[in-house]
Amino acid sequence: MSKALHRMTHGDGRKEDADYLLHIAQNIQGRTICAFGEACSWPVLSFVKKFKNEFEARGEADEKSKAEEVSE
Amino acid sequence: MAKQAEEKTAPPVEMIKIKIDGKEVEVPKTMPDPMTGKPVPTTMIQACKLAGVEVPHYCYHPKLPVAGNCRMCLVEFGVPAMGRDRQPILNDDGTPQIRKMTLPYEPGTPRGAIACATPISPGMEIYPSSEATKQMREAVLESLLVNHPLDCPICDQAGECKLQEYSVEHGQANSQFAETKVHKPKQVDLGPRIMLDDERCVLCSRCIRFSRDIAGDDALGFVNRGSYNTLTTFPGKPFDNNYTLNTVDICPVGALTSKDFRFQMRVWFLKETKSICNSCGTGCNITIGSREEKIYRYEPRDNDAVNSCWMCDHGRLNYKYIGSPDRLTEPKRKGRSGVTWEQSIANIVETLGSAEPKSSAIIASGNQTTEELYLLKKLADHLDAVTDTPEDTGESDQLLVNADKNANSNGARVVGLTGKSLGANLSNISSGIKSGKIKHLIVFGTDVTDHIDAKLLDTLDLLVVSDILPSETSKKATYLLPGCAHTEKRGTFITVKGRLQRFLKAVEAPGQARPEAEILAQLVGQVTGEDFPDNPEGLFNRMASEVKALKEIKWADLGDLGVDVNV
């Protein structure tokens, strides 16, 4: 998750990254040996669920700017 | 259904009724703990195994203490719902209502419990095949594979890798991983026999628990945090005890590999033969991995009565002498260039047939099979010969290694070739040769120049030697008969604890070498006039009917785990 977010903040995001983060976080919570599983996944879950359109918009914008770079 | 192990002193274990995948089964309430032997509550994974359902797992091992860190054995489960009055709530048809466990903070999502560490309770229902359980397994596998390198084509574990097997059975087909993998040290030299690949490690900690709790050598541990978690030894202290190669067996992936077997052979080509290790008197049950008459490795077999599921490194690597280019391959006659088996046996029979009583001696190694020792005893009785077996002792340890390095000392004792202490008669034989009383000496499988002066051997009329590798004794033989290593014939050994175990043939003997039992059946048969079966089963059955300690067991009843006999 950290690497995915790092990618997104550095202009390398994708539209499906929002769902990707949700998928990872949901698969971690409740399935680990220690409570750090919930500790790391709950912030991601709450951010992405509440501001999903912003995450998706950022992903789309990144994809668009990369496509423009390639075509130049 | 559960097998009830009723011991003479312990009361029968209480049985509980639970449901696994809708099928009701009755399982014992407690089972013995692998480390202490004391009864502890039965876990869900043990209950599922008794019911015939295999729950995938990595860190759990039936012989090691439970860790619970891999989370692969997560299963959905439900317990009978209880009302306020502590009575079970019933359905309309009278059956107890089952409440499936869910996450406390998200009541819509099923909660999984790790089957290896959760005890069962009466009325519980486990669902190892439900949709929720399958989704949990897919998720765990996805997480495990995130940083796992794509090494299958070059990894030794391919073909026996649990990650491969569970990915096929329980994993997702598509990868959605879009990041870069974490890189860790790849060819780490952990010790003289073990190579570690940190990237492949799934951090199950089986090796750490084995080394610390079973081998007694607290050598391995995890360092660094999070995704950089790495297995390592203390800096400067190699992983070097006599049981390190067992960690290679229990590692579910190809992280720990044996330097000896690395890159030698793909495991699906290996023919697996059930056998017994012959490096000491413990008689660990092994599986020989061989292909086309070459042995590639020994692996331990499960036998709770002898070696649990482990074996020592020394015995495990002690197979190379079998493929040595020095192997004796042809019958030889002193002073002649070529001789056939028929000629050799005919000449020996002629000489022994006219030998005076008490003019012969037989020295048989403690590594010969019980059947061969039985035939030698028959010969000794007929010739009224002095017999003995040389002793071979070394170091022992608290675990598996026994001080008696003969594989079959008890076999020699049971058939009567030697007394309680081996080697007591060797000085008598030596003085008998010196005085000229003993003119014929038959040596099987050992180098007697350790006990009898080599020059004395030259004074004998007849020296018959059977062995697999050349020695000082074999050089002086009048007749040299090439024999077989234990991997090239079928037979039995009796362990120091009195367990009779059989082993099977894995590879063919080189050249014209023949199993000693075949040679002896002919030889002894012709000298004594008795007719002996020359196949292993017939010979064993005949021997068991005559030797009292063997209680007339049949070869077919020996099974893969052996039987106890009175020594």
Task: Describe, in plain words, how this protein is organized in 3D.
- The complex is a heterodimer of chains A (72) and B (567).
- Chain A has 72 residues and is mainly α.
- Helix content of chain A is 76%, strand content 0%.
- Chain A is built from four helices and no strands.
- In chain A, helix 2 packs antiparallel against helix 3 (36-50) and helix 3 (36-50) crosses helix 4 (52-71).
- The longest helix of chain A has 20 residues, at 52-71.
- Chain B has 567 residues and is an alpha+beta fold.
- Chain B is 23% helix and 20% strand.
- Chain B is built from 14 helices and 27 strands.
- In chain B, strands 1, 2, 5, 6, 9 and 10 form a six-stranded mixed beta sheet that branches. A six-stranded mixed beta sheet of chain B has the order 19-24-23-22-20-21, with helices on both faces.
- In chain B, a hairpin with a 4-residue loop joins strand 25 (491-494) and strand 26 (499-503).
- Chain B starts with 14 loop residues before the first strand and ends with a strand.
- The A-B interface holds A 3-4, 7, 14, 17, 20, 23, 27-33, 38 and B 68-69, 71, 74, 103, 105-106, 109, 111-112, 136, 139-140, 142-143, 176, 178-180.
> What string gives the helices and strands of chain A in order?
HHHH
The overall strand count of chain A is 0
Number of helices of chain A: 4
Low-confidence stretches of chain B: 1-7
Distance between the termini of chain B: 36 Å
Question: What's the alpha carbon Rg of chain A, rounded to whole Å?
Answer: 14 Å
- The unreliable regions of chain A are none
Outline of chain A: elongated
Helix content of chain B: 10-25%
| Structural category of chain B | alpha+beta
Mean pLDDT of chain B: 91
Strand fraction of chain B equals 15-25%
- Multimer state: heterodimer
Distance between the termini of chain A: 31 Å
Whole-angstrom Rg of chain B:
29 Å
In percent, how much strand structure appears in the residues of chain A?
under 5%
Main β sheet profile of chain A: none
Helical segment tally of chain B? 14
Q: Largest contact between protein chains?
A: A-B, 15 and 19 residues
Helix percent band of chain A = over 70%
